[in-house]
Amino acid sequence: MDTVTRRRFLVASGVVGATALAAGVTAYRLDDLFATSGDRDPQARTLVLVTLYGGNDGLNTVVPYADPAYRDARPELAYEAEEVRRLDDEVGLNPALAGLHRLYGEGRLAVVQGVGYPKPDRSHFRSMDIWQTAEPERPGTTGWLGRWLDRAGGDPRLAVSFEPVLPPLLAGERSAGAAVPVTERKAGRGLPESTMAAFATGSPDDTPARARAAACFADLRSVDEMIREVRDAGDADAPEQEGEATPATATGGARTPLDAQLDLVAQCVEAGVATRVFSVSLGGFDTHADERQLQEILLGQVDRAVAGFVDRMARTEAGRKVVVAVYSEFGRRVRANASDGTDHGTASNVLLLGNGVRGGLYGEAPSLTDLDDGDLRFTTDFRDVYATLLEQTLDTDPGEVLAGWRGRLTGVL
């Protein structure tokens, strides 16, 4: 991301102050990131945060199939007991989550139930601000991982986003993380490789503006080359399945943006870069109509990308120290709407995955009958999840980042 774009995003987000803006506007190339290979403590853990934008329906992700109130509230959307991938005699996973169901059986998936915050807000932007700043009463000017970055030394390469823009959660008071967008940019037809290489090559007599333009173009070419290498390697390693074609996605290809982001995270972890936090995301979960089919497609993308990543990480010592956390800004309302969808709700699930995770169900499942104006009452404060990740994964006192918060999840890491 170029300096101007990054600065505009940070200013527009309203979640970063002038000090962090001045400290964090430098554009980092992938070469800068991989230059840190070997610099990290081999015992250090890595956090990979997966954001599902749009408000994923938690009740049709972790399905309370045995509760008659579930089917009564959404008869057309509800899954029958024989359709779900059972976790126990009460709840099961969405049929699209075959890979995550396998990981649960292997003890590598923890499902934290009923996660939310006091006085929930049903606005996408407000609720996401709350989740990313970890300040429910009044979203502040820094992200919770940005505040961690301030205390970890402030090097942007310690907290990297493989999203189109830097998410507010990586903006600190004195520093900000690094953003490397995962996109494929194509030059106009007829431009040979030599011309494209020339665009990316600086000259000693360049003006500062031309030198900056050359550096930015070189950075974009570096990103594209890395993505091509990762995808080629993934295609070569993928087993062929007779009679089953690779499904296309809404983005026009067989490999989703989340696949590409997690492939790059895997490359970084395997190279031993200094990065301790990676942020990736997938959008499209605002399912107000025809939810069941759409959500299954999206959850299928999540399942393939995340399960494949967790399996890949299990092959190396560094990978076995990776913890993946999957969350959305809110769940959906318990009762379906008139369009075979669901509207913005409140509490939902957080998924934690990895070899270092103690799998199982955590927290209390919210009641489907004792509701707050038609919405689930949260049973686990999301700051308990963050505090656990800060303490057990990032080796940081959560109180310094979460304003003295004392809650924790017990036994999950």
Automatic annotation (TrEMBL):
Spell out the residue ranges making up region: Disordered.
Answer: 233-255
Instruction: Give the source's domain of life in one word.
Output: Bacteria
The residue stretches assigned to a coiled coil in this entry are: none
Output the Pfam families linked to this UniProt entry.
DUF1501 (PF07394)
Q: Where is the composition biased (Low complexity)?
A: 244-255
- PANTHER family (alphabetical): BLL7424 PROTEIN, DUF1501 DOMAIN-CONTAINING PROTEIN
Spell out the protein name for this chain: Uncharacterized conserved protein, DUF1501 family
